[in-house]
Amino acid sequence: MTHEEKSLVQALNRGDRYACHDLVEKYSGKIYNVALRLTGHPEEAEEVLQETFINACKSAESFKGNSSLGTWLYRIATNNGLMRLRRRQPPTVPLESPPDQGDGEFWPTQLEDWDWNPENLTLSDELRQVMDEAVASLPDQLRAAFVLRDLEGLSTKEAADALEISPSNLKVRLHRARFMLRERLTLYFNERSPNGGHNNG
Hints:
The chain is mainly alpha-helical. Helices cover 63% and strands 0% of the residues.
C-alpha cells in the first residue's frame, strides 16, 4: 500500500468528511468500468458504484492493507456486481473452480491461430459491440476474471485477491474465458471471410 493510500485510509478511519470524496474522485472511473462490464447495464453499474463507495467509506477499518486500496475496492465492486448477476440467474461456475480437468463445456469447437490480446485488436464499432456481447455472454465468474485481468489490467495476484480466490484458480478461469471468447470471435471473423464462412467446394 502506498503512502497516499495509507493517508487516505487513516483519514477515512478518522471520519474525515473529505476523505470519502477523495476516494470517489480517485477510483470512481475504474470502479464504474468494472461494474458496467460485469452487469452490462449503465443503471445497475451506477448502483454498484454507489454501493461500493458507501460500503468502503463505512467499513474502512476492515481494510487491513494486505492489498492495494484499489484491489480492495475492486473486491467490493465485484462482489456487489456478482450479487446482482446471481439475482438474475443461478451461478454457472462454482466460487472455487477446481484445477482445470478439461471440462468439455468450456472448450471451443472453432479456433484460429491468432494471439488473444484485446489491446491488439482493432475494434470497429461493430466489432466492439460483438466483443462486449461476447464478454457479457461469459459465465459470471469467468467474466469477472476476464474483466479484472484482461480489461482492467490487474496483475494475476491483484485479480485473484479481488475475487478472493487463488492465483491458480484465477488462471483457470481466465484460460476458459479466453477460449470461449476466441470461439465467439472466430465465428464472427469466419462469417466475414471471403467465403462467408461456407465451403461450397
